[in-house]
Structures are given as C-alpha cells and as structure tokens.
Amino acid sequence: MSYSNYAFGRLTRYTLKVHNAIKSACVCSNSLQRILNKRFIRLDIRNQVTQADNLALRELRPYQKECIETCLSKFLDHKINRQVVSLPVGSGKTVIFSNLIKQIPSPFPGADKVLVLAHREELLDQAYKQISKYSNLSIEIDQGGRIAKGNANVIIGSMHTLGKTETIRIEKYNPAHFKAIIIDEAHHATAASYRRILEYFGANKKETHLFVWGCSATVRRYDGLALKDIFDEITYHKDFLDMIQEKWLCNLRVTTIKTDVDLSKVKSSSEDFIMNDLSKYLNVESRNDVIVRTYLELAAQRTSTLVFGIDISHVESLTEMFRKRGVMAHGISSKTKPHIRATILKEFKERKFPVLVNCGILTEGTDIPNIDCIILSRPTKSPVLFQQMIGRGMRLSPEKDDCLVLDFIDSYSQIPDLATTPTLLGLDPTVELKDENFCEYDKEKPEKEKPKIIINAPTKIRITEYSNPFEIIDECSGAQHIQKFSDNAWLRIGEDSYVLSLQFYGTLKIVKENEIYYVTHKKREYPRHITKLPITSDSLESMIHACDKWIKATYGLKYAHIVASRFAKWPFEERSSIKLDDKGD
Ligand SMILES: Nc1ncnc2c1ncn2[C@@H]1O[C@H](COP(=O)(O)OP(=O)(O)OP(=O)(O)O)[C@@H](O)[C@H]1O
C-alpha cells in the first residue's frame, strides 16, 4: 500500500483533527472508531523501518516473512482486524510478532503503542528478550510487582494483572494511544481476563481501530465457536510435519511404551484427568521404576532429558528413582523457590546434569533448545498440553540430531480421548501397532522391591519405536479414526473433504483449503442455499468436534441425534443418497 506525499500530508492533517477529537473524548466511541478504521486514514509506517530493522528482517526464516506479509496484507487489503495464526511450538512465534509490531501501521497519529499479552512470566520475559533483540523500541513489563509507567512503545502485560476485575492497573492506558494488541498462546484468549482487557481497549468488536493478532500452536476449538468471538480469521497456518521436513524443527524419534495400567478407572473432568486421582493410580514405585529403566535402556546417552510428571509428589518420587539408579536428576515444581529454580534451569541449559523432572512448569514458552529427550509420564486428554510438552524438544540446537520422545501410553483399555503421539498426528489412538517388543520388567524384580500397595501397577510393557513421525502416519493412517471422536456419520468423499447428511436439514461439507478446514451448510429445501458456517480450524479433529457442537446447538440434542448420529435409527437410503464426489457443491 503506498500513498503520494500530497495525499499523505492531507490525510495526516485530517487524522490529527480526528485524533484531537478523540483525545478530548478520551476513549473512542464506536462510530468514531468506525471512521478511524477506514483504511484511507491508516498511516503506512512500513517506510519507517530502520536499517537495523532491515537487518533483523533478513534473519527471518522464509515462512516467518511469509506469515508477516500475509497478516499485514489481510489487515490492510482485506480489512481483517482480528487475526490468529497457527504455527507449531518452536516455530518462532515470538520472533514473528517481535518483527511484526514494527510494521503495523498506526491508525492515526499518536496511536503507536503495542500491548503484548501473555499469561505466564516466562512468556512475558521471552517476549521482552526477542522484542529487544529485533527492535529499538522501548519496552515495559506490567506484571504483579513489575509495575509499568505506561510510557514505553511496547507494554508487555500479564493478562492476570491487567485483566483483573478491579481496573486500577489497566486504566493508565489510553486505548487511543495503541495500534495493536498481540496475544501470545492465543488459545487462552477466551478466558474472562482476556475478554475484559479486549473490551477495555475496544478490541472486542470487528470494527476496532486496533490490529488484534494472536498466535498459537493449537488454534483448536472444541467449544465450536468460542475463539470466533475474539478473532475473525486464521490467517496463516504451518503444519509441524512440514516444519520437520523443511528442517526448521528437529526430527522426533517416537517410542510408545504401553503399560497395562488401566486409566479407565481414573476420574476425569470435561478437559483432563483429575490430577489427585491420576497420581493415586500412577505414582507407584513399579511404574516409576519402569520409566527409569526405559530411560536407561533407550535414552541414557541423551544429554538433556525433560520428564513430565503428574504432580509435586510424582516429581519427587521420580527424581528419587532416577538418583537411586545412579542418574543425576533434579526436580522442579511450584514448591521450588524461584532462585533455586533459576539455578537448576541454568545448569540444565548448560548440560551440567542429564535429567530434569517437572510438573506443569516447563510447558508453554520454555526455550531450552538442548533438550533432546522428552519423557511423557503424565497422561493427558488435552491435545494442547500434549503438543506443548513435545514441543519443548523440537527446537534446533547444534550437536542435536533429533529428539527422542518416550510416550508412556498407560492403557491397553481404549480411552478414545487420550492424547498420544498418534493423536497429535490426527490418527486413531487405539490403532494396533506392529513390531511390538514385549518386555516384562517386573519378572526380573526381586520380591522385596515390589510396591506394598499395587494399584494396577504395570507388569508388562510394549515398546514400539518410530524413527520419525511419518512412520507413525504410514502405519496408522486412515479416515476411519473419525469414528473414535465423533458419533456422527461423517463420510470421507475426497482427499481432504468430508460430508455429513443432516437429512431434511441438508448436508454439511468440510473442505480443506490452504491448510485450513472450512465447513458449508447446504439446505435441502429449494432454493438450496449454501452458507459458509463461522467455523474454521487447522485440524480435522477439532473441526469435526466444532461441527458436531454446532449441530447440537442448532437442532437441539434430540434432533441432532436423529439427523446426524450413525447410531440413529433411520433409513440408510438417505445416507447413501449423498453424492460421493468432491466436485460441485
Ligand atoms: N529466524 C530465526 N533465527 C534464529 N533463531 C530463531 C529464529 N526464529 C526462531 N528462532 C529460535 O527458535 C526458538 C523458538 O523460538 P520462539 O520461542 O519464538 O518459538 P515459539 O513458537 O514462540 O515457541 P513456543 O510455542 O514453544 O512458545 C528460539 O530459540 C528462537 O531463538
């Protein structure tokens, strides 16, 4: 987008007047915001990028540049003000937004500040580090005891601090001084604190004068439409398998270890297992011993192994078990004092000891590129958490060829919503895997070492090794896995397209374009309108979940079952009448 000097001068005078009016009104009214948001008065500051900025831009990876260009074009040319991008863990999302913020045009003079929001201290500090590295902008952090004056170009704010119901901390910021809000780990953006902040800045509406940009590795919408309130479009997506192939992320060697602990007895909430219950079943000596022995067998030569445990007591018992078997291990949890945590992390980064055990601390935002082995000893139903845990090992680092993932799948019984490496790849988690080696560790164990209370303690494990994620895909691919997470009668009709008959309510059709799934609804009665539903996703599973929720919300539970379920009693002729080609509508 370019402007002539003449037009630029005139527009600047015009915008100054508007800006003064805003100042006197203090906060933009909706109608003013609409006027201001017209692109003809949006100033193009891309010409103001300094030589230092250009140097930094040259260091960006091709997909990072492409992402920035796509988002700016969607913003300036297509007027999509609230965007979210879907990029895998370790792809450099912080690097991307650190470079993006310099290029976001001010909507009017004086509106040149950027608010970066995140929910964890590590993320705030990482944003500070990267923005300082890539620009000369002044930066302040506003979080808890770190109180910002509010004068800097970039405010990195904790959503907990700024999103409090008492608004003292946020009120020092004048929304008219801001051009953009960046949300790191944007899948959290539906939380009430984020909503309060967005509302305060007037960024809760499509017509906002701000550029609202979020990034996440897991733009998933199991709740159907929730993220749609916050963002209008997923404007860029890159798959983590592509990133591995292009060598921007390191290869994963995956070893699944199936133990015969029966997870079906562990209590769950709608999101994940209940931690206390999980710990009761899984934090047992025999299982911890299997974990350490597996490490010794398969990963002892690795330099930096990160272990995910269930809770504080699990971190303590696993650390002790590693030490008992002669492995130098440290544990960190919420109980660890901050200065001790910092020292342990520093030494782990310097490869001074090989095993670090944690629970819930080193997930999002932890940047320790030397991690070359991940032990998942904390089963989860949350694909978001699962991906975040694996992501800690996918960063590139010199002297690191790949990252070994030891994925403990604690159940021979079928838990359809358990997150495992196959589910990460969108595959059926309960698929029968080939080439399994049976190990019966407990047979070797002296009687006296056996745990006193055995609750489903593992006696056998099955180990399956894959040298890269593509092998898992080769082994487990197939569309039938949709049935594992949806009761509806979805049919695959093309490489990336699926349909579901809603009988007298028409059909839903999912298609994939530019790596994003979209869905259309075609009515049955004439005129047969086709409407695009406001649901998009980067993964088939979350797309199907969202569509299933939409069906329930639209037709009610009873009718949703009758019209869509594959278990419903209705004539199959109806289903087979769907045109099984991928063309046409
Ligand atoms: N263009 C680049 N040049 C060099 N290093 C880069 C580049 N982009 C990213 N990195 C490095 O890759 C690592 C991951 O970057 P970053 O923390 O920004 O990723 P992320 O996507 O935010 O990760 P997460 O989702 O885990 O928070 C960091 O060590 C960072 O320095």
From TrEMBL:
The keyword ATP-binding applies. Keywords: ATP-binding, Helicase, Hydrolase, Nucleotide-binding. The keyword Hydrolase applies. Residues 74-237 form the Helicase ATP-binding domain. It holds the Pfam family ResIII. GO terms for molecular function: ATP binding; double-stranded DNA helicase activity; forked DNA-dependent helicase activity; hydrolase activity; Y-form DNA binding. CDD domains: SF2_C_EcoAI-like. GO terms for biological process: mitochondrial DNA metabolic process; mitochondrial translational elongation. GO terms for cellular component: mitochondrial matrix. PANTHER family: ATP-DEPENDENT HELICASE IRC3-RELATED (PTHR47396:SF1), TYPE I RESTRICTION ENZYME ECOKI R PROTEIN (PTHR47396). This is 2937_t:CDS:1. It comes from Funneliformis mosseae (Endomycorrhizal fungus).
